[in-house]
Amino acid sequence: MTAKDLSHLLSIEAKTRRPSPLKTAFKYYGKPDIVFLGGGLPMSDYFPWDKVLAYSPEPPFADGIAAKPTEGKAVISELHKHKIEEFDVPLARSLQYGHTEGQPELLKFVKEHTALIHKIPNEEWDVVLSVGNTQAWDATLRTFCDPGDSILVEEYSFPSALETASPFQVDYVPVPMDNGGIIPEKLEELFENWDASNKKPKLLYTIATGQNPTGSSLSAERREAIYKIACKHDFLIVEDEPYYFLQMNDYKQGASEDPKHSYDEPKQTHEEFLAALVPSFSHLDTEGRVVRLDSFSKVLAPGVRLGWIVAQKKLLERYVRLHEVSIQTPSGFTQSLVQGLLGRWGQSGYVDWLIALRKEYTIKRDFTIDVLHKNMPKDVVEFFPPSAGMFFTVVLDASKHPDFKTKFASDPIKVETAIYEAGLEKGCLMIPGSWFQSPNFKPHDNTFFFRGTYAAVPLDQLKVGLERFGEAVKTVYGL
Length: 479
Fold this sequence. Notes:
Layout: H1 12-16, H2 21-25, E1 51-57, E2 74-80, H3 91-94, H4 104-118, E3 125-130, H5 133-144, E4 150-154, H6 159-165, E5 171-175, E6 177-178, E7 181-182, H7 184-192, E8 203-206, H8 220-233, E9 236-240, H9 270-276, E10 290-295, E11 307-312, H10 313-324, H11 332-375, E12 381-383, E13 391-397, H12 412-426, E14 431-432, E15 447-453, H13 459-477
Helix pairs in contact: 4-11, 5-6, 7-8, 11-13, 12-13
């Protein structure tokens, strides 16, 4: 299928940005018949790194992803100034200027991975590397938004993403959510009631899987409905998906009793794993109106600061022009190191890693829900097992506090603050849900929530923290 021309959605900045004349000359760099005297490139002989060694676990990770590499059971990435393996990115090249889109070997791996997972239906998609999803989101805003434009956001969203948009002087339009994420019917209502004198929103920003902060995930049916609305009303969908591969099996009770053996199902085959993943917006993208922000942050390590943007080629060209005068390219060390590992794992080994990662998060999610069942007062608290991601929420009803109207003046935020402070006193920090409210969002009722994560600490500390938070809730409510 052919992607639609969506250049009318570009920002003034993106439309007016021209290729750097110096960058256009770099296509001649390295050609054997050209003596390249045109760029300020230091000779790689002067780079003080000749070899970098990295030891990593070996697929299929039968002992888990946390097992330390041992003699004979390690993948050794030996990175040299010049190539060893065909898939390696030599340090002489990765530490040099150039390759704004990303090193070719890593781009090839990421593009093959994207095709394997998402099977994008339009033929005009491509990928460019980013310095993680925060930078990719900033570049997206610069590429599409002008002051006064509107963007659709989930009514609760990641504060850093919202703050990234703030200097662009955009107007936020919160979209109602429930435990399943964005409600498509409510999104359609926003457009049905839209003031015709105002420009319609240019894009929807969504953390569609394992949403931060709510832990919700959009079903395949909701994604299809939202995509149809985007086509009807001509806006882009920006899917920020760092948690996509942290999709988990259904919750099973009993993990808190014996967490190491609570997940003893046979290991999934690659086919079973891929079939169980909820289809992405990119998988539905017949018109080329999805911009996917992908990242290694939650599946390898946040500090690699490496991700990639998936979109139609005409739009990605505008990102490249922006990157030429901003990030230039992601860290050369990171690109060589990550590609050195992925090249040795191969696509199959990387899927093995993702399957093993899924198992670890399923265990921690199940453990968390078990401990919540044992420690939370059910008459004032609700919680639901997330199907993906790193986060869970504890939802409370402020109106059930005996002094809600008197001591707290019928203000749920005051109850939330009291629990937050009680939690700190008892030695547990959970984040108040009000910190994640999108601008212009008005709460519907007297409920509020706290966001927690099961990703940051081992199980024994997780249990202690949840028990302490349960005590804080009981103390504030007088239970």
